[in-house]
Amino acid sequence: MAEESTTPDPVEVVSGLFEAADRGDWDAVLSAYAPYAVLETADGVFDAVSPARMRGFWDEWVDGRITRLITRPDIDEARAIAERLAEERG
Fold it and tell me: For 28-38, how does the pLDDT look when each residue is reduced to its tens digit (9 = 90+)?
């Protein structure tokens, strides 16, 4: 009898991260990161080394600026939602 893999299914892991982001559960999202993970903004202004520092970034910069976060693993679906929301807002 073959042994079951103890490695989590990557699709399930990523789907869980999308669901956590949809709920705004940043602790759950950041739990997937290694203790030495680095978050760097595109402009290089901010670097956060460790999930705890990344959480600080979200708490200071993102919270209050983002009123709703919608994530979709399908880029076409995400684009259609974004376009519809933009159209509704004028």
Answer: 888 888 888 77
Higher pLDDT, 9 or 90: 9
Alpha helices in the chain (DSSP H): 10-23, 26-30, 51-57, 75-89
DSSP conformation class of 39: E
Q: 50: which 2 tokens? A: 């460790």
Residue 47: Cβ within 10 Å count? 11
Q: How far apart, in Å, are the Cα atoms of 65 and each of 16, 52, 58, 68, 72?
A: 24, 20, 10, 9, 20
Indicate yes or no: pTM above 0.85: no
Q: What phi and psi, each to the nearest 5 degrees, are found at residue 61? A: -100, -45
Query: How many whole angstroms from its chain centre is CA 41?
Result: 14
